[in-house]
């Protein structure tokens, strides 16, 4: 039977690379998107193999539950649930973040990941099989200035994943995160092209031990490995895929 | 009681690559499995250890080269790297699986044991990174170094303190190496195992209670097998954006703890017998 992989936030720069990697391995890929239906439709066409896109607001727990129930009902058991979503936000110092913005980002990202994993676990736990994986950030190892809105919800997600790994390991469920450095895709690619400017990008590269930005495909390979049977003895891992930026 | 998992073959294209694996003379051990899987995926493999006869059997089996090498002797490690260059013309991958168990409580420890603990488990890794990185750098396209560390560096396992402290220092070395060699695209990562069902710990595993006690603390409910580590190495040596990372390959044991000495079957009696109390 074809393995089913669910990628939340699959239409984004990194999410779409993850979808492509799983599709290349022969999985049927189902992904969620929030607002860009046209981009999602184009990705479905590209992926083929019965790929499907579902528009859902991950912050809405009932909607996420309904979406996952529908996938399980229509497509079959979800083997892997990958959280690759994240809200867009302005980079600001903590003092400049409004309480409303903080609440919004924590709800979209932190709650979004919880809602996804919580709904997936309801199906995975009884059949004692499944992999959960969340994209996180290397900022957890080196707290960044002006990037709190990215890092804070990821810190919550990191704990969520580690606790699930500990609680559900005996139930055949593995949970891991991939801690991203500067990847030339998604939100970072947007900032590289529009806001950061060449000098800041040069500085970032200089501060990265491997002296280059990462590629979305390199993230996708790590995600696919952690969700594969080749990583059957790995759980609760926060795997840095950051060119050494955490150092 | 846990059961042996089924291991699927992990495939990465390593054709044309040359690898060194140090610490692989024990059939059914971690280093042995790593060397076999690298060879199976197309790499030419140079295997090193102190004991030559089993090493030659491994080299014959995988079509590689056996080189007698004491991991704690810098000139031996340098010669191991040179053997890869002399025989195959390049080096791309280097894995150090050599370890020297040292068993003593702090209260009883002797200078000789402290020296033994750091010789292979810390200094040996300095020699390894230094000479393997220099050999990899000759190719100018970078490569990958993997060090097998130990969960005992983070989670105490009495009475392995001296061994664990040397491994903790090695984890530190990995971070320094990642920073130093990153600009030349030489990636340095480590694997953190907990209890492994390997040849080194054969005696301990003769008592089934030993495996059960170790597995009890592991969220995934079993202990590690050499093939788990072979798969982890294959992932780390493939093309990637990872350096200075630790791959926790211990079933989630990094989230819990290791068994206490008092919980080990015959733990108190085994301590002081000079026997190896496990492999991690």
Which helices and strands appear, and what pairs or packs with what?
The complex is a heterodimer of chains A (247) and B (280).
Chain A: E1 4-8, H1 13-24, E2 28-33, H2 37-47, E3 52-55, H3 61-74, E4 78-83, H4 99-127, E5 130-137, H5 148-168, E6 173-180, H6 186-206, H7 216-226, E7 238-241
Parallel strand pairs in A: 1-2, 1-4, 2-3, 4-5, 5-6, 6-7
Helix pairs in contact in A: 1-7, 3-4, 4-5
Chain B: E1 18-22, H1 30-40, E2 44-49, H2 52-62, E3 65-68, H3 74-88, E4 93-96, H4 111-137, E5 143-148, H5 161-181, E6 186-193, H6 202-205, H7 208-216, H8 226-237, E7 246-249, H9 267-270
Parallel strand pairs in B: 1-2, 1-4, 2-3, 4-5, 5-6, 6-7
The total of helices of chain B stands at: 9
Q: What is the string of SSEs of chain B from the N terminus onward?
A: EHEHEHEHEHEHHHEH
- The structural class of chain B is alpha/beta
Model regions low in confidence, pLDDT < 50 over at least 5 residues of chain B: none
Low-pLDDT residue intervals, each spanning 5 or more residues of chain A: none
| Helical proportion of chain A, percent range | 40-55%
CATH topology of chain B: Rossmann fold
Strand order of the largest sheet of chain B: 3-2-1-4-5-6-7
Computed over alpha carbons, the radius of gyration of chain A is: 17 Å
- Assess the beta-strand content of chain A as a share of residues: 15-25%
Shape of chain A: globular
Give the tally of structural domains of chain B.
1
Named at the architecture level, the CATH assignment of chain A is 3-Layer(aba) Sandwich
Helix percentage of chain B: 40-55%
The class by helix and strand makeup of chain A works out as alpha/beta
The fourth-level CATH homologous superfamily of chain A is: NAD(P)-binding Rossmann-like Domain
Q: What oligomeric arrangement do these chains adopt?
A: heterodimer
Q: How far do the termini of chain B sit from each other?
A: 19 Å
- CATH level 4 superfamily of chain B: NAD(P)-binding Rossmann-like Domain
Q: How many beta strands in the DSSP annotation of chain B? A: 7
From the N-terminal CA to the C-terminal CA of chain A, the straight-line distance is: 42 Å
């Amino acid at each position: 039977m074809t393995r089913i992989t669910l990628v939340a936030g699959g239409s984004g720069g990194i999410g779409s690379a993850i979808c492509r990697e799983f599709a290349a391995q022969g999985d049927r890929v189902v992904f969620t998107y929030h607002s860009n239906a046209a981009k999602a439709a184009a990705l479905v066409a590209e992926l083929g193999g019965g790929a499907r896109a579902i528009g859902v607001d991950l912050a809405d727990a009932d909607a996420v539950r309904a979406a996952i129930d529908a996938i399980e009902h229509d497509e079959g058991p979800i083997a892997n649930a990958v959280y690759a979503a994240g809200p867009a936000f302005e980079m600001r110092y903590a003092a400049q973040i409004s309480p409303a913005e903080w609440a919004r980002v924590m709800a979209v990202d932190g709650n979004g990941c919880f809602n996804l994993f919580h709904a997936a676990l309801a199906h995975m736990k009884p059949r004692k099989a499944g992999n959960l994986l969340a994209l996180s950030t290397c900022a957890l190892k080196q707290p960044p200035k002006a990037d709190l809105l990215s890092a804070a919800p990821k810190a919550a997600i990191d704990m969520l994943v580690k606790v699930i790994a500990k609680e559900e390991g005996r139930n055949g469920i593995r949970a891991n995160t991939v801690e991203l450095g500067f990847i030339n895709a998604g939100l970072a690619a947007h900032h590289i092209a529009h806001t950061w400017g060449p000098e800041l990008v040069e500085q970032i590269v200089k501060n990265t031990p491997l002296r280059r930005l990462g590629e979305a495909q390199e993230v996708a390979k790590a995600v696919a490995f952690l969700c594969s049977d080749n990583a059957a003895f790995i759980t609760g891992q926060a795997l840095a895929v950051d060119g050494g930026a955490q150092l | 009681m846990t059961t042996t998992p089924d291991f699927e073959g992990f495939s990465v294209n390593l054709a044309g690559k040359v690898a060194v694996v140090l610490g692989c003379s024990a059939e059914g051990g971690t280093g042995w499995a790593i060397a076999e899987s690298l060879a199976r995926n197309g790499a030419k493999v140079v295997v090193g250890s102190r004991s030559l006869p089993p090493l030659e059997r491994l080299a014959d089996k995988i079509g590689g080269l056996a080189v007698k090498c004491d991991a704690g002797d810098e000139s031996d490690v340098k010669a191991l790297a040179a053997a890869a260059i002399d025989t195959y013309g390049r080096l791309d991958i280097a894995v150090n699986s050599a370890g020297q168990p040292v068993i003593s409580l702090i209260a009883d420890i002797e200078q000789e044991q402290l020296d033994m603990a750091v010789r292979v488990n810390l200094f040996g890794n300095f020699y390894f990174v230094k000479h393997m990185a220099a050999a990899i750098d000759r190719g100018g396209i970078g490569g990958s170094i993997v060090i097998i560390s130990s969960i005992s560096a983070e989670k105490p396992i009495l009475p392995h303190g001296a061994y664990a402290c040397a491994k903790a220092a090695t984890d530190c070395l990995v971070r320094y190496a990642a920073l130093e060699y990153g600009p030349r695209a030489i990636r340095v990562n480590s694997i953190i195992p907990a209890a492994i069902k390997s040849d080194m710990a054969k005696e301990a595993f003769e008592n089934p209670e030993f495996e059960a006690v170790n597995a009890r603390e592991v969220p995934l409910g079993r202990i590690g097998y050499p093939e788990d580590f072979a798969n982890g190495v294959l992932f780390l040596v493939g093309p990637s954006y990872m350096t200075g990372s630790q791959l926790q390959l211990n079933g989630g044991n990094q989230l819990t703890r290791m068994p206490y000495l008092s919980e080990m079957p015959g733990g108190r009696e085994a301590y002081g017998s000079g026997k190896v109390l496990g492999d991690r």
